Amino acid sequence: MAIAIILYSLHGHITALAEAEKEGVELNGVQCDIFQVPETLDADTVKALGGKPSTYPIANREVLEKYDAFLLGVPTRFGSMPAQWSSFWDATSALWVKGSLHGKLAGVFICSSTGGGNESTIANVVTTLVHHGMIYVPLGYYNVMKKLSRMDQIRGGGPWGSGTIAGPENEREPTVIEKKIAREQGRKFGKVYWKTIH
């Protein structure tokens, strides 16, 4: 019994949040492993975009069948998921037909360059989860209200899921507050998962 974090992270922002999410999950004594969706860009394009190579194992259909619950790290592209995530989900039709993911839990955390599209990206991911019959677990405001409502600094995320804002040139790194919110999302998600298996 375990939770998988599956992500796509070109510049490392989602990766930083994923590590915080993992810390939160494991506070519940739950095993948590991190995977990445396959890259659809060639190596030269990734380099030209300033991409940071990731060393996580690649997620595939077997990972989706093996794990019981998922936290999904999805950067926003024009208010929706990027091509790498779309391609990943497009390859799951056999699982959809069999109902392999039905009833499994899923939460989402995001990154955008400006803060625009945060909630719409998660809503678009939830549409896919619904087609698979998965159960979306939002972050909500409980235990993070003060962090999510702070006005003294820029902050990504919201009640749909934790997040960060990378800046127009991906120059901004996730802040301590953003990582704390991600950690709390992982903790709460792990707690919900733990309750479902006991």
From TrEMBL:
The keyword Iron-sulfur does not apply. Belongs to the WrbA family. Gene3D superfamilies: 3.40.50.360. GO terms for biological process: positive regulation of ferroptosis. The keyword Signal applies. GO terms for molecular function: FMN binding; NAD(P)H dehydrogenase (quinone) activity. PROSITE patterns: FLAVODOXIN_LIKE. This is Flavodoxin-like domain-containing protein. Residues 1-20 form the signal peptide. Residues 3-189 form the Flavodoxin-like domain. It holds the Pfam family FMN_red. It comes from Zygosaccharomyces mellis.
